[in-house]
Amino acid sequence: MRDVTVGPLLRGWRLRRRRSQLDLALDVGVSTRHLSWVETGRSRPSAELVLALAEGLDVPLREANTLLLAAGHAPRYPARPLDADELGPARDALRRMLDAHDPYPGVAIDRAWNIVLANRAAAALTAGVPEDLLPNVYRLCLHPDGLARRTLNLPEWAGHLLHQLGRAVALTADPVLTALEAEVRGYPGVEEALATRPSPLEPVPLLVPLRLRLDDGRALSLFTTLTTFGTPRDVTLDELAVELFYPADDESAATLRTPAGPR
Length: 263
Hints:
Organism: Pseudonocardia xishanensis
Protein name: Helix-turn-helix transcriptional regulator
Largest sheet: 5 strands, antiparallel
Number of domains: 2
Domain HTH cro/C1-type: 10-64
Helix content: 40-55%
Pfam family, one: HTH_31
């Protein structure tokens, strides 16, 4: 961080969020001149101003710590591991949410879409997937040795996933996500699948489902929702999300509710 100054970092976040200096200065309550001096390095911002600018730009907590360090201040937000005692209540809430969602699949994922918790139904769907594709959701879904070989609507699902991943890259500029995007786009069959996506002029479905072929030949159709913590003050919690899968039709609901579950 000794070679990084806070001004260019703040300017980068402002441009990424498509905010003008005037707009941001009015939101934060500083003069446009002072903000300009901060961005050009003529003025060293206080920790309070850095945090106010980070909040105004909706900067994730991990990057807010980076801004503070670049400005010569101590990080504000801790980054405890999920198994830390301090995160016990949040961890228990995640587990209760996932267990209550069973027999429908549910997972908790981190910033890079690595699965950190999963319920029984999610484990059943990923049984037999090579270990090197776990725990990342994008590798799991798009690699030909993963769920891609059983995905009946791969062009549509791959397009949804890559749009989602590309948006995350644009919003965060995270090098880990950037490398992951390049990796999964290089998987065999992904670019070919994207080339056969339905025309954007065709009728738009209500939701993009994940349609999987089961071992007995039946199709399992699922749609997903994402849930995040509302007021996180820890980097780990700020980066966690819960993805819950729901049956998209009655047949899929009946399959998931059978005692043995899908195979």
